[in-house]
Backbone:
DNA sequence: AGAATAGCTGAGCTATTGCTCACAATTACG
DNA sequence: CGTAATTGTGAGCAATAGCTCAGCTATTCT
């Protein structure tokens, strides 16, 4: 599934180890700079400075600023610390535990660098390709959850598709908020309440 | 509670009707331009052009670009089509209806211009004053909901404060998503499921 | 070693943006 | 009227951004 957007492709493929290292330093620096300054104020010159390479080098591996952030986001999506839905427990009486596993997954995927993730999602001007990639990822997850809801004996909701959308988004956003603005409520407490809400919903009274 | 941030105050107070009209045209144009181009690409010159006034006039009523968007957001907050919590039904067996009223409020406050609201919240560099205003508004709502949860006979949750935070945010974000990306699911269906989820949570099994 | 290739540099070009200011036009008011 | 106050104008300034390119250095290959 190759990206069709030329504007996100590097102009040169690194052929030496040195080059690969430079590319990596750029990405690491970019993550730091975006986190610290946000996307708009995270200039390419600042990234190059932080990576201790010249601005010219940066533009040998990334055709433009967007491509740098795109690469970071792609990596985050691909890494996907996602508990395969098929590995989740489907026996009766375990719905609560199943939901808790979902919540934990969400927390895990946010705990690495919540600030950067927030910037990538909220501030960045995402290209159509990126949006497609995110969408694809979302569809896969939704399908998995829908399948899980269909097969779990304790689940009683009207439309499984709607329910899957609803709980995925709810878990995602609440986790996102919790990680981005920490301190207001203990993580464990909030996670437990969140799991409660979803569980009670799925059990259908 | 006057704003202390000088950078958001207009430099001149309009004294003639003509001036008031100009100010209004700027705000209307800004709403359109921000909606169409986003915040970063919605330049002040574009706003002036659309309002059919000169860029100089724009800067007589707003000290900078941020102030324009701040004014739009303030207005949205102040308008607040908010069903007073005290007007909500607290008699037993009506929890479902009460929650539905909350969901409807959220939908109403988003339906006017969801795209603009998204931009204001997600793209704009909000000043501390703005953030404070939003925070204040949020606290008031949270307090109202907490009060409601405490007094409603059908509500059975552990910590009322956490529950209030959780359901307000969940309703807000799900509504936000539904209005911003329309078409995927019928609004009524989604709203009903959302209300179901919250209701079942609050009833505590 | 020497040529060829790959990688790196950074001054500065081009484009754009938020915003100013000297001035003109309009309105208020005696 | 005539004068002062208010409102409106828009060329252009200063700052900053993304990005290029001519030339340098490092590595690889024969």
Residues:
């Amino acid at each position: 599934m190759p990206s069709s957007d030329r504007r996100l492709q590097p102009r040169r493929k690194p052929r030496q180890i040195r080059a690969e290292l430079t590319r990596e330093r750029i990405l690491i620096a970019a993550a730091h700079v975006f986190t610290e300054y946000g996307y708009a104020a995270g200039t390419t010159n600042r990234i190059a400075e932080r990576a201790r390479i010249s601005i010219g080098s940066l533009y040998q591996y990334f055709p433009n600023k967007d491509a740098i952030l795109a690469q970071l986001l792609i990596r985050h999506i691909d890494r996907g610390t996602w508990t395969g839905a098929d590995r989740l427990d489907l026996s009766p009486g375990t719905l609560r535990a199943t939901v808790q596993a979902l919540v934990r997954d969400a927390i895990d995927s946010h705990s690495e660098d919540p600030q950067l993730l927030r910037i990538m999602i909220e501030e960045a001007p995402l290209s159509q390709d990126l949006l497609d990639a995110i969408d694809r990822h979302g569809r896969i997850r939704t399908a998995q959850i829908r399948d899980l809801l269909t097969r779990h004996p304790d689940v009683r909701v009207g439309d499984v598709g709607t329910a899957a959308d609803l709980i995925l988004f709810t878990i995602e956003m609440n986790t996102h908020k919790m990680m981005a603005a920490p301190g207001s409520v203990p993580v464990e407490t909030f996670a437990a309440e969140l799991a409660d809400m979803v569980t009670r919903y799925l059990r259908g009274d």
In short: Residues 16, 18, 43-45, 55-56, 58-59, 63-65 of chain B lie near DNA strand C (CB under 10 Å from a C1'). The first helix of chain B runs from residue 17 to 41. Chain B has two domains: 6-77, 81-203.
